[in-house]
Amino acid sequence: MVISAIGQGFLWGILGLGIFMTYRILNFPDMTTEGSFPLGGAVCVTAITHGISPVLATLLGIVAGMCAGFITGMLYTKGKIPVILAGILVMSGLNSVMLFIMQTPNLSLLKQPKIQDFFTNLNLPDYYDVVLLGLLAVVIIIALLLFFFFTDFGQAYIATGDNENMARSIGINTDRMKVIGLTLSNGVIALAGALIAQNDGYADVGKGVGVIVIGLASIIIGEVLYGEVTFAERLIAIVLGSIIYQLLILAIIKVGLDTTYLKIFSSIILALCLMIPRLKEALHLKTGLEKE
């Protein structure tokens, strides 16, 4: 069970990396997440059931997520719709898109090939194939993100999130950066959806409900545990935060609590993690006053 939770942590960590690109760098929450995540799974699973290879099907899922992010970006920058509302509009619309793609609310991968099948010949113990797949995917995504963010274009993207007015004053097209950020972010999120759908063995139109909480939990737990770190270490901390989160969920299940209410437990864990920095500040301030 622990190995399975670690494997899940790697896969969900990809979701955290995608959310990080908007939530932490551009400083706004993108609600498209709850639509692009299941969309990636829906497109991937549908493609596999139509005879397309799992690798190509996964890439199609990524492209679908990028299209969703692009539409949100255009609504936000060109349509002047507030970003949260733009994300909600796209998220709602994607529900119908997924039903059109799958022709059913739920589609199984029973007896169909999956991307983790490529590791079958390695004769790995149970769940280690998911760990290996998740680790490989995380390494590739982090490497690509580091390459992107250390280019001039990537630095312009970071500058847009740091100080939009300053970025605009030095000639950066901030609207373009936001559209690109939302597009890339949702592509990464859809990748997580595609891989998790294959791991679970099915795609479901309702699978995106609450996933933004899981992604934010990965980010917050990583930040709380590791504090001030380099950019590369921060990306790694998000994945480690995701693994820790999955282990916490496993502990809740082991204790015997009703799994029907996992989402409220997830929200409580996130709320506690968000409060820890404030509690630390309050404790530090109280200690300082006592010393004086």
From TrEMBL:
GO molecular function: transmembrane transporter activity
Segments crossing the lipid bilayer: 9-26, 55-76, 83-102, 130-158, 179-197, 209-226, 235-253
Subcellular location: Cell membrane
Signal peptide range in chain numbering: none
Listed GO CC annotations: plasma membrane
UniProt entry keywords in alphabetical sequence: Cell membrane, Membrane, Transmembrane, Transmembrane helix
Membrane topology: Multi-pass membrane protein
Major subcellular location class: membrane
PANTHER family, A to Z: ABC TRANSPORTER PERMEASE PROTEIN YPHD-RELATED-RELATED, BRANCHED-CHAIN AMINO ACID TRANSPORT SYSTEM, PERMEASE PROTEIN
Name the record gives this protein: Amino acid or sugar ABC transporter permease
